[in-house]
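User: quick one
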Amino acid sequence: MKRILLIVSFFAALFVGWEMLVRAGIWSAVLVPSPLSVGEYLWSALRDGTLVDSSWVTMRRLLAGYVAGIALGLPLGLLTARFRFLRDTLGLVALGLQTLPSVCWVPLALLWFGQTEGAMFFVVVMGTVWSMIIATENGVRNVPPIYARAALTMGSSGIHTWVCVLLPASLPFVVSGMKQGWAFAWRSLMAAEIYVTVLSGFGLGHLLHYGRELNAMEQVIGVMFVIIGIGLLADKALFSPWERFLHRRWGTTA
Amino acid sequence: MTVDPEPLSPTSSKLSVRDVSKRFVSGSREIHALDRVSLEIGEGEFVCLVGPSGCGKSTLLNLIAGLDHADAGAVLNDGAAIDAPGRDRMMMFQESALFPWLDVLGNVLFGLKLKPTLTKAERVEVARHYLRLVGLEKFEHAYVHQLSGGMKQRVALARALAPNPRVLLMDEPFGALDALTREQLYGDLQDIWAKHRKTIIFVTHNVREAVCLGDRVILFSPHPGRIREEFVIDLPRPRDINSVDLARYSTRITAALKNHVNRQGEISE
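Assistant: Done. Structure below.
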């Protein structure tokens, strides 16, 4: 209880201090709008639906690409761990492309797909898939060999060993790969949305971009808050359950 | 020999190791793990393989488990060559090798799930039976990391026993446990063996442990791995590891071991 009180008062003090600095004219209201005006913008954008619409557009793009990236990366990672040939080839490609900031896919995506949803999808998949391949491969190769041997003596073999032993055993790595993939996908999508206008849907990135065009600082800062909020929410909703599962089973502490 | 209360296939299990050799290449060095080793093990026998590290005793266990293949010679189970793992031969390792993503019951069920003849309810019943046998029925929903080292090995024992193998292969299963826990497990293992009459092949470098558990103690020496001597332990069961009679045997065997190994060290009594 005391902890919650401390947290609340910390942020309250932060906002009050901010408001006062703006009111006193120490911070220019043009460059740093007061928290109240940011709140006003958020409230009006929420009421006229622009915020909900663009959040939905962004989340839809992100989830579609992210799910596809994982659905592609997980099996490819398993195959890469299984076959030396793939490790020497695809593994190397994945390692190289993972170091490429995923924003760098945007120009290529635009040339290939034009200003379409396809381009957005492609960028998000590229942000996710390489991390996923590397994390899965790494996870499988870090499974203690004794697990596979124990499973073998109990009559497990082939696909069964992969699905029932190696995959669950590498979960700690897979989940951290999913987290990294999410971070990359989220950042690259935001960059793509700021950079490119896609007529089939205006995402949060566009909203941020137009805030700048219109010199509407309260919009810029408001949208930034929304983006942070979605990031935190995804962390809690998507990854916390997995991490709790891992901590409970593996006995590692957070 | 007592009659096993559980259904067994009618033929008697007999393991024979005939002139088996095995080499490993590690880096630029070649290790001659086993050199023309022969050994006969009868149904229901408790045999301990003793020797310093590198003498090939674990290699031999892996060959019998079917996890590895011999370069020369044959490993036979009832006269048939062993070329793959089978549920008639279950293995227990020094580390428990329990799966952290499953709870205790899930771990014991793992091997049973691969037995297609059982229904789900039967499997759970069998798993619970073996957890009771090792005294862990209250821990079926615990996770692996919550167990002590001794409890982990008990679960591993239950998991190995659950598919009802005829042969139990144990690779230094108590090596990482403290002395007190080990002594309890010696008692439990002898108990379970007396009741179920599995054939047990037990690898250790602890001579006292071998004398306490085995009908026979087979002495190995390394480089190349060979069988040096064999001791029949003629002591009543259950045996207490601290008894004077047992100490007399282990002194003799330790002396023989030192004699064979000479300055190789790594022998614990």
